[in-house]
Amino acid sequence: MSLYELERDGKAQELIRLLRESDNERVKTRAAELLGNFDDHDDRRDVVNALVDAAQSDSDAITGAAIDSLDELGDDAITQLIGGMAGVDLEDDAADWVKAKAYMQVLDADVPELRMAAANGLGNLDQADAVPKLAERFEDPDPRVRARAARSAGKIGDSRATNPLENVLSDPKAAVRREAADALGNIGNRQALQALLPLYEDDDERVRRIAVGAFGNFGNDRPVDYLIEALSDESAAVRRTAVYSLIELLSNVPTDQSHEIRDTVVEKLSNTDDRSVVVPLVEILEESTQSAQRRNTAWMLGRVTSQEERDRVIESLVDALSDDDQMLRQFAATSLAELGDDDNMVERRLLKIVQDDGVDPNVRGQAIFTLGKVGGERSRKTLDKLIDETEHDVVRKKAFSAISKLGGRG
């Protein structure tokens, strides 16, 4: 039975046995990682005890995995580790500030694994007073400690960490830079976001992805050029993240600026040969639960879709015409009109909606509006007949408006 199967089937004791008895370091490391998923297990006490022992291993990999799993299991597990390794007496019901004070003392311990555990634990306590002490560990000789200290500072989110974290962005270890970038993204103030901009071209793919992912939190168009550059990144994950950030950015900027920024984005996308932007946009439209994101995406798809992706985009936009969000329906309709209909695909799909009496009249009206933009003689005849047959005023009114653009009634 594989380690994954042991974890899936809840075999905590078998994973504990492998963690304690296996001669294979990779097996022990993986067992330690998986035991962090047993928070609600009946053998949780045994799990914590085994991980506390493993955290004192001679192997950096096993120690790191054990400490991270203890972190996943909760503050009481980390507290037990610190108490066992440093002799710090922390009762289960101690106030968070009391625990934080003890953890800050342990940050100065000689054992790097103990400093790692203390840094991890402070991230769960949300005590802003811990940030200056964590910042001292940004220059720790052990990169694992630097990484965990940066991560915890980001979890706490206090702006006092911004300057020290900005310095960590030049750390020689990519793992440390990743945590610092993620932390600055969490803090999210203007200085923090500004510090992340140059990282769109970091040597490490994950650093670039984290930085680009944070660009959507800006409230202005400052990162647009960087995001457009990121759309040509060699990493598909970075390119995909850049698309999501562009849409998030449009959702976050003030309303009076969003239209101008949308035009800027479309202009810059039109000047690039990379068309991989469209698939993530369709996924946002189909899967996102955020109204502003879906509206901006629907608008964007009508302006950046190439012939190669046109069929899928049309299907997605037509489906959006039936959405509960009226503004999204309007954006989808205008984008369908923007795409044009040389092959009559849009017209055929919309006529199915228009001729279906079971479809909501408002949805049919939106489809009729679009037919007025892209339809031909077939649409004109269908709408001419519909005017006399429909019982819905909104459908009739939309049909009159659309047919006037298609040559009038026969």
UniProtKB/TrEMBL annotation:
Keyword rRNA-binding: no
Signal peptide coordinates: none
Pfam families on file: HEAT_2 (PF13646), HEAT_PBS (PF03130)
Presence of the UniProt keyword Lyase in the record: yes
Keywords: Lyase
Single annotated GO MF: lyase activity
Reported function: Catalyzes the hydroxylation of the N(6)-(4-aminobutyl)-L-lysine intermediate produced by deoxyhypusine synthase/DHPS on a critical lysine of the eukaryotic translation initiation factor 5A/eIF-5A. This is the second step of the post-translational modification of that lysine into an unusual amino acid residue named hypusine. Hypusination is unique to mature eIF-5A factor and is essential for its function.
PANTHER family, sorted: DEOXYHYPUSINE HYDROXYLASE (PTHR12697:SF5), PBS LYASE HEAT-LIKE PROTEIN (PTHR12697)
Protein name: Phycocyanin alpha phycocyanobilin lyase
Organism field: Haloarcula hispanica N601
